[in-house]
Amino acid sequence: MDDLDTIHGERIYLARIPDEERYYKRYMELLNAGPVLSGTGNEPHTLEEVKELFAEWRKDEGNMTWGIFRKSDNELIGDVCLRYGYEEYGNDGPEVAIMIGEARSGYGSEAMRILLDYVFKEKRKLFGKQINIINLGLYKENTGALKLYSKLGFEEVMERPDIDNGKVEIVMQMTRDMWHRAKAI
Ligand SMILES: CC(C)(COP(=O)(O)OP(=O)(O)OC[C@H]1O[C@@H](n2cnc3c(N)ncnc32)[C@H](O)[C@@H]1OP(=O)(O)O)[C@@H](O)C(=O)NCCC(=O)NCCS
């Protein structure tokens, strides 16, 4: 999907990652960092695979992937996406996923907050409709991600085994109402 708004936070902003060699390399570096591999359960990616990934996002109407950029030096430090088609959640909301190269920097919380504000803003339409629910899946052993999502107000709705590797996956959801209630407190 090509038309992505830039979303501004205090220390970071979310923007389309340019289709340039240096960003492919930087993205590969982030994806292949140890904590990211263990959090996502992915295998390391080659540069060719990263390029293919970018090309797939661009074609996919059900995928909005933003780079997370640090404001102080415009460095790419991670990504956050809304997408359909990876997992089934039993509702018409997209899945959210996030990856940050530097752990415990506070960037993960800021990126998710500004994205949720953006999605749940009145009258905003994404994927051609108003989004009222966001889903996500994470491994139970991924304590950092669990802490992040719980702090933001996502609620656990079920646990299920990942058929690929037998790990326990937790499914969490956030509705538009939950986000507005959490912000009002
Ligand atoms: C999960 C992830 C996005 C968190 O990003 P982050 O920038 O580290 O998050 P924050 O610094 O905003 O931390 C949010 C909270 O979680 C806590 N936290 C973060 N990483 C943690 C860890 N490994 N263990 C325990 N707590 C952790 C922080 O201390 C903070 O809580 P606090 O405010 O009470 O101190 C990042 O670690 C990451 O990209 N991991 C690999 C990819 C991944 O697992 N993505 C999610 C897949 S669903």
What does this structure look like?
This protein has 185 residues and is an alpha+beta fold. The protein has one domain (7-184): 3-Layer(aba) Sandwich (Aminopeptidase), CATH 3.40.630.30. Helix content is 34%, strand content 27%. The chain has a five-stranded antiparallel sheet, sandwiched between helices. A hairpin with a 3-residue loop joins strand 1 and strand 2 (12-15). The longest helix has 13 residues, at 47-59. The protein is globular, with a radius of gyration of 16 Å. The N and C termini lie far apart (35 Å). The site of coenzyme A has 24 residues, from helix 2, strand 5, helix 4, strand 6 and helix 5.
Task: Explain the layout of strands and helices.
Layout: E1 7-8, E2 12-15, H1 21-31, H2 34-40, H3 47-59, E3 63-70, E4 76-83, E5 95-100, H4 107-119, E6 133-139, H5 143-152, E7 155-161, E8 168-175, H6 176-184
Antiparallel strand pairs: 1-2, 2-3, 3-4, 4-5, 6-8, 7-8
The structure holds coenzyme A.
Coenzyme A binds next to helix 2, strand 5, helix 4, strand 6 and helix 5.
Counting DSSP E segments of at least 2 residues, the number of strands comes to 8
| Biggest sheet details | 5 strands, antiparallel
Counting DSSP H or I runs of 4 or more residues, the number of helices is 6
Please list the strands of the largest sheet in the order they lie side by side: 1-2-3-4-5
Our estimate of the beta-strand percent is 25-35%
Structural class determined from secondary elements: alpha+beta
Any low-confidence stretches, pLDDT <50, length ≥5? Answer: none
CATH class value: Alpha Beta
CATH superfamily: Gcn5-related N-acetyltransferase (GNAT)
Helical proportion, percent range = 25-40%
CATH architecture: 3-Layer(aba) Sandwich
The best one-word shape is globular
What distance lies between the first and last C-alpha atoms, to the nearest angstrom?
A: 35 Å
Instruction: List the bound ligands.
Output: coenzyme A
